Amino acid sequence: MATTAHLFEEPFDADEYIERLAWRIPGGGSKGGAEAFDPKRLLEEFQNHIEELKQLDEKIQRKVEKLEHQCHREAKEFAHKVQDLQRSNQVAFQHFQELDEHISYVATKVCHLGDQLEGVNTPRQRAVEAQRLMTYFNEFLDGDLRSDVFNNPDKIKEAADIIQKLHLIAQELPFDRFADVKAKIASKYHDLERQLIQEFTAAQRRGEIGRMREVAAVLLHFKGYAHCVDVYIKQCQEAHVKEKLDGTRHSDVEQYLKNLYDLYTRTTGLATKLTEFNLGSDKHTFLSKLIKSIFSSYLESYIDMEREYLRTRGAMILQRYYDSKNHQKRPVGTGSIQELKERIRQRTNLPLGPSIDTHGETFLSPELVVNLLQETRHAFERCHRLSDPSDLPKNAFSIFLLLVEHLCVEHIDYALEIGLSAIPSSDAKNANLYFLDVVQQANSIFHLFDKQFNDQLMPLISSSPKLAECLHKKKEVIEQMEVKLDTGIDRTLNCMVGQMKHILTTEQKKTDFRPEDENNVMIQYTTACSKVCAYVSRQVEHVRKSMDGKNVDTVLTELGIRFHRLIHEHLQQYSYSSMGGMLAICDVAEYRRCAKDFRVPLVLQLFDTLHALCNLLVVAPDNLKQVCSGEQLTNLDRNLLHAFVQLRVDYRSARLGRHFS
């Protein structure tokens, strides 16, 4: 294998190189290849290759020495060239220095000559200017302004320059001799100043920035230049405000109110920052008047537009919700006839009109409520910012009335009316009672309403007479809703009791408590009891989910009392054998277990007493008096005890009545 430098290029692996060399030698591989392994031949080849490597090393070394010698020679040549360039640069720098000195000398001569010329020309120009001003002054003195500069509107800039100089000159003249001419010059001065400001205003309205710059430069030397600045600022604000507001005032009231609030807030914020600068002693008054001049026409009509927007927006939100439910709002009756019907319904539970089926729909929408409260919150924020302090309580109250109308009357009160109409009569079979769901959602919504009342409305009216009106209105709304809630809950409880009564009527049999085979009673309690307890447990859970706070105990107490009354009256409809009495006691024990779910001590106490009364159905005749004197029965009316004893089938045969004589 020929030995060349490219065999040692990176990456170089010595082991691989030796292996490759040995492999290519006949008989030198580890397995011998086609021939047997020959170590002598392999040694000989390695020795030859080592000699070749030595020769290659010497050749490369000579080449390296040659390249190093060439590099040293070229380095010396480059150093000589750099020295020659440095000497040339030094010569060039000396020439530039001499040229700079010559230029400075010439410039000094030119400046000196210019000064001499200016010294000659300036007095001449001043003389010409003075002569020109004297000519114009004579025209004012004669009262006849003949020069074209004062009569040509296109030369107003030149005229302004002349009148400004004449005005300065006139101030130095004695008043007694030149009073008339001074007055004429002053009149012309103010007239031109007014024309320039008008021209500046017109150019700003046309958007001609160049013309504005030109007129402002002329006005800079007049006393009214500050007025020019005021006009510019006012025009900028009015143009921006009109652009933002006038375009949406009638086409998009919502955007108009948002823009008005945003612009007014940013403007007042800017005014607050400007008060930090030295704008004079009455800077607050000045800034307030400036803001009022810009927004007065919009603020005067603000609350009317706010109310109209809220009225329209609220009606749209309501209608959109009822449309999504495919519901046509029913007219809610008002007046004395409706009130009379409601009173009769409350007292008798008679169906005074058709009961509607809402299919479980409460017609109360959290999303709708959030939208209404959100709109009202924005309205209160705008009212706080945009209303005059003296009108703020009145305006806030008017917004509150719209919230009451849309949220409390048109939505909550309407849902309560629909819910009341959907409550079935107390004798309805398998009635679905959704009014408690209405109660739950109405309470949640009113909590949100109350929170907004306290958070957003109260700070706006807390120190005004409107506070009493707002509190009275809120109380009135609460009382109206509570009346309907109480009515609906009462009628719902009646329906629950009616459903229990229906179960007892259809499931309870007379033979339950007078079995034909007294010795073969295998049940723990009757089917009627089981179904009633299951129904009551569901309703108790429903009440707990629908109510909060003390309302839970109040409603469950009333339901428990009615539940007890129903069972008490139901048990008095049957006569009891000894085994039937035991079964009645088991039923009442199950009713009492169900009553524990109420978590109301009074209800549990009533069923404990009823359980004790049922013991009178099974106790031995001789022990009746002792049982009636027990702790739970001793305070009861003797007639009630006697009535229960009369339910026993052995009442007459055992002459039990003598124990109550």
UniProtKB/TrEMBL annotation:
Keywords annotated in UniProt: Coiled coil, Exocytosis, Transport
Coiled coil: 43-77
Domain Exocyst complex component Sec10-like alpha-helical bundle: 239-659
Name used for this protein in its record: Exocyst complex component 5
Organism: Amphilophus citrinellus
GO biological process: cilium assembly; determination of left/right symmetry; exocytosis; Golgi to plasma membrane transport; melanosome transport; outflow tract morphogenesis; photoreceptor cell maintenance; photoreceptor cell outer segment organization
The keyword Transport is assigned to this record: yes
Entry similarity comment: Belongs to the SEC10 family.
Keyword Coiled coil: yes
GO annotations of cellular component type: exocyst
Domain Exocyst complex component Sec10 N-terminal as annotated: residue spans: 39-148
